């Protein structure tokens, strides 16, 4: 039996599609737990209607906001079944046999979990969404159907099928994270117990991007990603940066490391110039951001046709990318704290953002 856990936080505009995609699955019986984390929009009313329409749907409500990890753990405790499907409110399973294919892949590979692959057509993305998805290195390739795809070396807990025994073995999701990062901590815990995660290419899910959020909102989101990564690295004792049997570090982590590297080079260069007054260090100060700028521009050029980028979009990726790096680096070193009551900085309608 499969239990579907859908955490909801201000998802009135998207959660119905997520639930419909689960209820349409050919795998039966299935229970669907909708866990409202103290939403402040019309989500409670939408959930009550969904619960009234299908006996498989159960509604659980947190009287105060407790955060994503705690909400997922409540769903884990309240649900039954050998398999647990974690699906975010802004995601839809593609294909009525998605769960069947996921269970087949899970058993065939003796995996602890299998993760879905987010897809969405480029024409559904606004300019800012394209810029920041390229800057954050979420967009790695284009499918044969011209649909953007992303992959990672860990589960994002957005559309994943788990063995219940695996989640229970690690004590569920780390509730100290509150506002994100529980996915990377879970990956480290799985690795410590030699629990493997599979990433089949045939488990796509539709990711609803919502609306084209502004540059300021996205920069605050990058700051929050930096805060999340700081916490993850501290709590995993840097093991979140490890290589895995399947390959090198997560490309998104190496991308963020490159972003932080040029900033560190800039700081060191300024310090050396102040100490020596050598003009050579001024050259280094110019080269550090220039190399990062060129790398970002090359990335944008490589996907220009696939994502229908105009010339100004390609140019914007480089300049905005440098500012994004600064926001992320600020988050990693600042004393700013996010608690479980923090709202996502961008992408309204999501239960937590895509990171890091």
Report on the architecture of this protein.
- By secondary structure, this protein is an alpha/beta fold.
- The protein has a domain at 2-124 and 144-213: Spore Coat Polysaccharide Biosynthesis Protein SpsA, Chain A, CATH 3.90.550.
- It has helices at residues 15-23, 43-53, 68-78, 98-108, 127-135, 164-169, 182-192, 215-235, 251-276, 279-302, 311-333; strands at 2-8, 30-37, 57-62, 83-87, 91-93, 113-115, 117-119, 141-142, 148-149, 159-163, 197-198, 204-207.
- The strands form three sheets. Strands 3-2-1-4-10-6-11 form a seven-stranded mixed β-sheet, with helices on both faces. It has a three-stranded mixed β-sheet with strand order 5-12-7. Strands 8-9 form a two-stranded antiparallel ribbon.
- A hairpin with a 5-residue loop joins β8 (141-142) and β9 (148-149).
- α9 runs antiparallel to α10 (279-302) and α10 crosses α11 (311-333).
- It is globular, with a radius of gyration of 21 Å.
- The two termini are 32 Å apart.
- The relative contact order is 0.15.
- The model is unreliable at 140-152, 243-248 and 343-354 (pLDDT under 50).
Quick structural gist:
With 356 residues, the chain is α/β, with parallel strands linked by helices.
